Amino acid sequence: MKKMFAVLSLAIGVLVNASAFAQEPSHKPVVVLVHGAFADASSWNGVVKILQKDGYFVIAAANPLRGVKSDGSYIGSLVADLKSPVVLVGHSYGGNVITEAANDRSNVKALVYVSAFAPDSGESVAELAGKFPGGTLGQALAPPAGLADGGKDLYILQDKFHDQFAADVPAPQAALMAATQRPIAEAALNEKSGAAAWKAIPSWFIYGDADKNIPPAAMAFMAKRAPAKDTVVVKGASHVVMVSHPDAVAKLIEKAASVK
Predict the structure, then answer these.
(1) Number of domains in the chain
(2) Would you say 201 and 111 are in contact if contact means Cβ atoms under 8 Å apart?
(3) What is the domain-level CATH number for residue 100?
(4) Which end of the chain, N or C, is less surrounded by CB atoms within 10 Å?
């Protein structure tokens, strides 16, 4: 019995140490990826593979997509539990979430906006999307789905998903993404953002010039306003630039992570 107990204690110790090592595998910061509306954490798969190969510990978080403050609090709590410096990366509405989540998190060293919103205090996603011409998301949305609390969920019509959301992704892959898309609460798109973390934390931006969800002019405006340390515009890329061009996105994340 004593021998069994000793073996069990050793095994538990190894697991605890392995867990601690998993959070801080090297001198490199942890990368936390936050997906946006109509997507899920698997949208980061290509980027994750590259970052892991290059020695980064990566968490592709599940964004609740319920509201700016609640989603920001959720991701912020995850960040607070990490002991390492963190690079926060947000796609689309996820940019709004990381802007909220980074506030009062001293271990966040960089923000990376991937085809994403970077709102100022008091701005909403809907307001920023309508600030410049070119977005066609409204025409591609399905009728809102009613919720028990009186709210509404929004989806992209599956037959319009490929052209609207992921035009530079192979059709079979886009069809899978359409079927597995996660809805966003309509209220989240109109909720005002809190303090703008990008005013205190360095930021980087990457987006495609063929984005139909967020007008490229809007993202150029937000990147310049930040102001971004670097802005990469991928020619011909759709809204899901991290799916179609994971190498370019990973390269910019690593650039942000390397800045002291």
Answers:
(1) 1
(2) yes
(3) 3.40.50.1820
(4) C
